[in-house]
Structure formats: C-alpha cells, structure tokens
Amino acid sequence: MKKTLLMAWSLLMATLTVNAKDNIDYVDPFIGTTNYSICHPGSVMPHALMSVVPFNVMGSDLNKYDKDKGWWSAPYEYKNRYFTGFAHVTLSGVGCPELGTLLTMPTTGQLDVDYHNYGSAYKDEQSTPGYYSNVLTKYGIRCEVTSTMRTAVERYTFPEGQGNILLNLGNGLTNEIGASVRQVSDTEVEGMRMLGTFCYNSDASFPMYFVMRVNKKPAQSGFWKKQPSLGAAKDSWEKYSGKYKLYVNKTRDMAGNEIGWFMSFPCKAGEQVEVQIGVSFVSIANARENLNTEQPTLNFEKVKAEARASWNEVLNRVSVEGGTEAQRRVFYTALYHTQIHPNILQDVNGQYPKMEGTETLHTDGNRYTVFSLWDTYRNLTQLQTLLFPDKEIDMVRSMIDIYKEWGWMPKWELYGRETWTMEGDPAIPIITDLYLKGFRGFDIQAAYEAFYKSATMTSSDNLQRPDNAPYVHKGYIPLGYFAADMSGDNSVSHALEYYVADNALSLLADALGKKSDARMFRNRSLNYRHYYSKESGTLRPINADGTFLTPFNPEDGANFTNCPGFHEGSAWNYTFYIPHDVPGLVKLMGGKKKFVEKLQMVFDKGLYDPSNEPDIAYPYLFSYFKGEEWRTQKTVTELLEKYYTDKPDGIPGNDDCGTMSAWAIMSMMGFYPDCPGSPYYTLTTPVFDKVTLHLDKTYYPKGDLVIETHKTQAGQRYINRVLQNGKTLNGFRISHKQLVEGGKLVYELK
Predict the structure, then answer these.
(1) How far, in Å, CA of 480 to CA of 460, rounded?
(2) Shortest CA distance to 326 belongs to which of 640, 592, 721?
C-alpha cells in the first residue's frame, strides 16, 4: 500500500513539474501590438540598446495602418499583413514615430529592391522574450531573430534557388533622411544612418552607426539608390529617373537618401544564412567592437538562450500564486514591457555621446536614454525603485549627468537629444521619490541645484519651464502665453505639472534642511486653486485678463483632440489631478460628499480615460475617505477586467514606455503610488492569492515582501481589513518604509 501511494505521489509530482511554467512562459509579446498601444513582438533584452522588430507598416494595401499615409509611430501592427524586413533599434510603447531603420529583408529569385514589390505576407508568427520568428509566404523563407544588448543575429532558412538579403537604409519610422554605407569585405558592410525629428522637434537629430556581417559569401553584391525624378526633357536621356538604380560590384561606398546594400547567393533547400548587426551611437569602430565583444562567434542558439536567461532573471523578481492563466499572462507581459525602456546608451567600452553635444564621454556604469518622464514619473519609476533599485539609481545618475553635461534635467530625452515632448518638470518627483525612500549613491546636491534653477528662473532662457514667469508671479499661466507645438495652448496642463513638481520639490527641500525653500514651493503648489471654476465644477483656462475662458465645455479635448488649456485630454481628465492636496480640492468642490459624487460621475459617464496619464490615479482617490474605499476596489477591479486582457488589444492605448503596464502591475498586486514624489501607496484588492516580491537585500535588508489575499467565498472583491504581520492597518494608505519592512500583508476580503 505504501509503495502504491509513493508511486502515485511521485507520478503527481512529476506531472506538476512537467506542467509547471516559468514566469517567462506567461509573457506574450503580442499583447499591446494593436489598439494604438505601440508595443512590438520583436527581440530585445532588458533595457537593451538593440531591438530587432518585424517591420510591417509600409508598402501595401494589405496593411490597415501605413506610416506613409498618416500619423503612425509603431514599426509593427498586429492587424497588418505585409512584411518588409526587420528594423534594428526601435522604441516600444511610444506615441511619436522615430528610429526603426536598418531594414534587413530576405527574398528569393530575381533581385528587386523596391519594397512595394519585395515585401511579403507572412504566417506562423512566434514570439517570446528575446526571440521572434515567422515564415514569408511569398518566398517560403523562415525568419528568426534574437539579440544581445547591442547586437542582433538573424537566421534565414531558404528554399532551393537564388537567395537575397537586402539592407534598406532609406526607409524606416524616422522623418530624418540620409545614410552612408561602405563595403568592408565580401561579407561585411559598415555605415551610418541619420535619425531624429521625434514628435515636434525637427532639430533633435543624431547619427547611428552600424556594422553588418553575413556568414555566406555572396555570388553577387552591390548597392542601390533611388534616383530623383528629373522631369521634362531630362527623363528622355536618363533611364533611371525616379527609379531604383543598381550598382553591382562597381563601388565600395554609397551615400544618399534612399539607398541600400544587397547580396545574392545560390542556396540549397533548407540552407541557413545568418546575419549579424552591431550598432553604436558613437562610431563605426564602436559598433564593430560591440559586435566582436558580444558575439565573438556566430552562435544563434547561444544568443537566444542568453536572452531568455536574462529575461528569466528579471521576471522572477515577482512570484504569483492563484489567479487565472490569462491574469498571469497580463501580469508578466506587463512586467516585461516595463523593462524595455529606459535603455542603455553606452558601448561596451563605456563611451556614449554627450547630451546635446558632439563630444564622446565615458562611463564606468550604465548611461541610460529614452527618458519618457512625463509618463513614467507617475508609477513606473516607483515600481522600478521597489523591484530593481540598482537600475533606478543608475537611471537617476544618468539624469543628473545629463544636467551636468547640458545644464538641464531631461524631460523627454532621446539618444542624447532633448525632444521637449509633453510638459512639466518630471525629474523632480522621480528623484525626490528615490531620495525620500532612503536611497543614496547619487549627487542629490546637483539634482537640487538643477531643480531650483528650473523652478525659479523666470526669463525666456528657462528651457524646462518656458512659461514660468506668469506661473511664479501670478500663480497660474494664462491662455496664449505659450504654445510651442501642434497640440496648441496647454496652459492649464503646464501649470498642473508644475504644481505637482513643486510639491515634490518642497518635500525634497525639507529633507535637505532648506526650510524656507520648502515653504515657498509648497505654497506655489497650492495655486491650482486659481483654476477652479464653481460654475463648471472643473479646472478652467484663464484668459490674459484674469477671467475664465467663455464659452467653455469641460468635455472638449476628449479622445486626444485639441482644446484650449489642456494637452491630450479634457478638463475632466485633469480636474482631479491634484494628488498633493486632495483635502484642498475637496474643500473647493464643496465637501466630501460632492467630491465623491463628482468623481463617481466621471466614471459613470465615461469621462475617465484609462489611456491618459493625468487621470490614471483617479480610482484611488476614493480611498482618501473612510467608508468610500470600496469604490476604489470596485473601480480598479472593473478597469483591470475591461481594459487589460491577454489579447493583442489588451492595453488601453499607448503603453507610454511601460506606464500603462506599470498601472496594471501595481493594481494587480494591491497597492499604487497615487502621489508622485510622496513615498506612500494606496491599497486596493489584489488579483492573486499570493504575491511575493523578492526584494534586493542590498537595499531592502528585510528581504521578501509577501502579499496574501484571503477569501471566504469566490467572487469577493472588497477589503474587510488589511493585516501587517498580524496587526490591522489603520486605513488604506501605507508608507514605503512600512511596506518594505513589514514582511507580510494579508488582505481579508468580504
């Protein structure tokens, strides 16, 4: 009997082992690849410079979305079907087009270098962190890609006959033009591609350098260039006018706008040709050094395995138990998305381009880039501080170094250029948050110097706050004072961001012993009261003469349409964005009852936008009031169920470099940082039965944080009480210190 039981137990354990999944197996990179979420399913390592992404947004009516037919910012769209190659170095979850060039494309048969012709439909897509593959139906070619931190390797399995590999340097997501390429040997080329013009800044351009190698000597190779249309009589004597011209074995160098390199070779059935690409933002020599260092030998499977191992390490920082398979896919895919940007900029030798300069500088650590701070300061940096504090410290060091190199903190920095996208002074709450949580190892005095400069300078030389003069002198920004981009006047939005930043700066000043500064910045942060209109019951733009804008509809600006005063949103998307003074806003609105009723109305009437940063913390505001906490728990649960799924459209719009994903992660774990710069969280109902955060003991000596959810019956979503190490918490807010030193949180539901 005992032997039988032992055998049964062994069989059960073996079955469980076989069926057990690693966290990485729950990641579905196709989540967020449609519905304007702008994520991609390509290969990328955590925070890597290199990404290799299928490019399917040009060249055919098979595509629903085309980069050349309207505003489009993604290299890949799930619903599109026409593939024109793999892009190298891309952005994920970003709402403006940029990067996404160096397009490599395999074809068969007679050479054709026009992407309208050489593109192909595809099938059998597969994607896991660090790997992507498909099959091109036009050619019968299987494509596979994987990557290291700064390099890519691609494997193409050809049918019998002539195979071609094309390197298209003329097309991509960027609006910048111009490239050069040089043949180094039969199997290697090197060159440069200009990039830039992100969002509204046509001056923010920069070069990217590359080296490309192929493991098979071609029978024929050369360049191509699309010639300009000469027009009129000139067309009669120039046969290539407006057409692609091939340069076969005739030159070693090529430069221009629509240029490329091709290789052709005879292939046996099933023969594999592999391509390696290294990149650098410093020099061709560094691109080659990156390639030689990270791929000293050509070994596709080794690179793929190392990429998977790297992602495993990251994703294993959090363990969950319970929940559905779909919820686990949502959770771990969201965690995956949060670890793509910011990404490193330095080469293997530590060199990187100086911020807004032409010099090459050196770092012994990591120099990060792609700081989408208007988005990420609200929740992603807080998540990073909790799970990966070593990375967050490096990112803050990079931000401070940017100030030292250039004189200003980054707002939306991209590969050494400031794009000035969106508004505010978002570095302040990010660094304040880190400092108030007890972290050191970065130059806080230099950071404060930068913050004080941007917060107090009232001249036109203030690049960070171009409309700071009226903000400082009047307490608000009137309509018409500043409008620098296609979104029109954003006066209220600008001021609100400054209020939040100045509140954080007051907390930092206080912590540094600068008491008078603390009072000044705190008082400034309360000037939001100027904008409150009792007539509309919302924040409202103010004219130059001090009167409110009339006529005024607080719903104008919804769905990212332009309206006076507000950037990418309506007054309802901004009115409750006073996270640093909820009691003051309650008083303006006539008390708790009216505040709660009005906030609930925002959700009931569909005025809440889950894809727009200013209002994503709205659900947590209910928990400021005793007896109303259930509304937070109900609303967050419903929003997660409605907008976050394991389908390609499972993110509610632009992921914004992981910001929307961070909202889902923290909401699913049961706590959320609803006031940037303030080290506190608001509690809500967790999704899983148990969540274990494996905290880094170097920074969190107490180690793991365990969150358990206890139910007496299925379907319970409301919190009866929360216990920390057996003691009932008072209220539904908890400090960061209390959270990480607590060891165990237990949510008892009812």
Answers:
(1) 15
(2) 640
Domain CATH code at residue 306 = 2.70.98.10
**Quick one: pLDDT at residue 201?**
83
Say what the pTM is.
Answer: 0.96
Residue 393, SS3 per DSSP? helix
Range of the domain at 408: 316-749
At 147-187, the pLDDT tens digits run 999 999 999 999 999 999 999 999 999 999 999 999 999 99
Pair 346, 450 in one domain: yes
Type of residue numbered 501: A
What pLDDT is recorded for position 486? 61
Across 81-121, the runs of DSSP E, i.e. the strands, are: 86-88, 101-108
The domain total for the chain is 2
> pLDDT at position 485, please?
63
Query: Are 234 and 342 in the same domain?
Result: no
Instruction: Kindly tell me the sign of the dihedral angle through the C-alpha atoms of 398, 402, 404, 410.
Output: negative
The residue type found at 274 is E
**Beta strand pairing call for 744-749 and 705-710:** parallel
Report yes or no on 7 lying in a domain. Answer: no
- With H, G, I as helix, E, B as strand and everything else as coil, classify residue 468: helix
Instruction: Quickly count: other Cβ atoms within 10 Å of residue 230's Cβ.
Output: 14
CA distance 705 to 670: 12
For residue 433, give the 3-state DSSP assignment.
helix
- Is 9 domain-assigned? no
Give the model confidence (pLDDT) of 338-354 as tens digits. Answer: 999 999 999 999 999 99
CB 70 within 8 A of CB 172: no
How far apart CA 736 and CA 722 sit, in angstroms, is 16
Banded pLDDT at 685 (limits 50, 70, 90)? very high
Under 8 Å CB-to-CB from 686, ≥6 apart: which residues? 668, 669, 670, 707, 709, 747
* pLDDT recorded at residue 17: 40
Element (H, E) at 202: none
Residues 6+ apart with CB under 8 A from 398: 342, 366, 367, 368, 369, 371
